[in-house]
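Good day; I would like, with your permission, to put a structural problem before you. What I wish to show you is a protein chain and, alongside it, a tokenised description of its three-dimensional fold. Please examine both parts with care and let me know of anything in them that strikes you as inconsistent. Thank you for your consideration; the sequence and its tokens are set out here:

***
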Amino acid sequence: MNTMKNIRIEKLTLNVGAGTNPDVLKKGMKLIQNLTGKEPIKTISDKRIPTWGVRPGLPIGCKITLRGDEVAPLIKRLIAAKEGRLSKTCFDSSGNVAFGIHEYINVPELNYDASIGIMGFQACITLMRPGYRVKTRRKLQRKLGKSHRISQEDSIAFFKENFKVIVED
């Protein structure tokens, strides 16, 4: 098999949306820190949405992006929280996988924390192949060929093979 066709995990992004409630934001920051052991960053609003009470500069959530060797064990725990099953709609046409976990206490090795209560978060996993830097580099950016892009079927096959995920329609 061509080594340039091997799929690997580029990054895992964990996200908690808090809206305008600062208490939910504090709980979300603590949740992500308990899950990953690293300090998350606050996401700041760029838009004004008066009906939701959102204005520019207001923190509305928190997130963390993880890369490298620490990602695969955490993904296994997150998939275990979903009981090893993901819907086909979780996989997009570009090789990304996104799913939500309704209650963090479903994640193995993560215990209930009374200061957080019950809350959920979203997980987004981005897959890539060698050579993807061509489309993101600063100089001489180029488009990827169709044969090198990751399709929905490719990402489903990757997750079935590496994480034993059952994909439901």
User: Anything to note?
Assistant: The chain has one domain: 3-168. The CA atoms of residues 10 and 157 lie 17 Å apart. The chain has a mean pLDDT of 93. The two ends are 29 Å apart (CA to CA).
